[in-house]
Amino acid sequence: MTRIGLGYDIHRLVPGRKLVLGGETIPFEKGLLGHSDADVLVHAACDALLGAMGMGDIGDSFPDTDPRYLNIYSIDLLTAVYRRVNASGLELVNMDATVFAQEPRLSPYKDRMAERMADSMSVDKGLINIKATTTEGLGAIGHGDGIAAMCVVLLRSATPKSGNSCPSGNG
Ligand code: MG
Fold first, then answer.
1. Superfamily of domain 2-157
2. Which of 32, 125, 133, 152 has its CA 20 to 30 A from that of 8?
3. Range with the lowest mean pLDDT among 28-37, 88-97, 134-143, 161-170?
């Protein structure tokens, strides 16, 4: 069985907040506004995984009215969501995401973001691809009002771990 999922998120950029994307803190004069750390990339990834499982969206699982999630490091939500993937007998085939930001320049951080996200799900970093683009100065993102992210994932039925297989060895 394979399952596909799509996630999208956008948050407003404001002064006085830390900028966290893909779990990585990025030096910038503004950060994203939200109840959590407002990590749009990780939120889009969570929504893609939840979508693939048919489990609604991130707001259903982690309501932004719940004080438990105030200022939470969103990468911990990704860990929690991926535990559900495993509990559903599924595993990640691959994840592909794009971050839309006019500033700052994100290419130096893409690799580290993929690493942090892979670590949080305990999957191989090679399964995760992070892309970054500006919007060529167009629209709200182009004017620096916010940052958005889009993510797709493919899940499949989990293959049994080696060593867990049938003792006769022919299973
Ligand atoms: Mg969000």
1. 2-C-methyl-D-erythritol 2,4-cyclodiphosphate synthase (3.30.1330.50)
2. 125
3. 161-170
Tens of pLDDT, residues 6-43: 999 999 999 999 999 999 999 999 999 999 999 999 99
Q: What is the whole-number distance in angstroms between the Cα of residue 43 and the centre of ligand 1?
A: 5
Ligand 1 midpoint to CA 60 (Å): 12
- Ligand 1 (ion): which residues have CB within 5 A? 9, 43
- Distance from Cα 35 to the centre of ligand 1, integer Å: 8
* 166 pLDDT above the threshold of 70: no
Higher pLDDT residue, 75 or 160?
A: 75
- Element housing 13 (H / E): strand 2-15
Centre of ligand 1 from the C-alpha of residue 149, in Å: 9
Q: Give the distance (Å) from ligand 1 centre to CA of residue 118.
A: 19
* Ligand 1 centroid – CA 54 distance (Å): 19
Cα–Cα distances (Å) from 101 to 5, 32, 123, 132, 145, in that order, read 23, 11, 26, 7, 9
